[in-house]
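Support reply, case 0932

Customer input (verbatim):
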Amino acid sequence: MARIIKQKEKNQEKRFHTELLEQLLTLATSGFGLVAALAWNETIQGFVKEFIEPRIPGSGLLSKLIYALLVTLLAVLITYQLSRLSARFQQSKH
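Our regenerated output:
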């Protein structure tokens, strides 16, 4: 009986460590994702300021619209690709 209890405790400890590592991985990935998003934010803003605003005078609102569309498109494409990749990994697990 004591052996079964010890085995259950070991299993619970392993699950705890696995869950902890998964959470730390998620946290680290989110942090780096935020840094990458901020870098892309500046890049896209610079692109709009350098290439759109000079060609279309008085395009303040239009520039912001173009910026929002570019960011949305980039977010959708990346999310879609990551979802496909995740699904592929889930299938290979089973």
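We compared this against your earlier run and they match. Two observations from our side: The chain has two helices and no strands. The first helix runs from residue 2 to 52. Please reopen the case if you see a mismatch on your end.
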